[in-house]
Design brief:
By secondary structure, the protein is an alpha+beta fold. It is built from one helix and three strands; from the N terminus they run E-E-E-H. 14% of the residues lie in helices and 35% in strands. The chain is globular, with a radius of gyration of 16 Å.
């Protein structure tokens, strides 16, 4: 085994594993969906951890034109 220490979830202490996820975030142009985003995800509570490089790339993508637009239903709770 190498010197790499196993990452544990900050919130629940669960095991964290590499995953590719769909991530939603607000951008200057509105809400956006980012697909196949690399992260570390807690296998217990689902908390996701993104590297600073991934966050920078998401910000760069958000400033470009999306390759696809989708419509979603919107509801008023009240």
């Amino acid at each position: 085994m190498g010197d790499q220490q196993e990452m544990r979830c900050y919130f629940c202490g669960g095991e964290v594993a590499p995953r590719r996820v769909t991530h939603f975030r607000h951008t200057p142009r509105g809400a956006a969906e980012f697909r196949r985003v690399p992260c570390e995800e807690c296998l217990v509570c689902g908390e996701k951890y993104f590297s600073s490089e991934t966050v920078r790339h998401l910000e760069e993508l958000a400033s470009t034109t999306a390759h696809e637009y989708v419509q979603v239903p919107a509801y008023n709770y009240a």
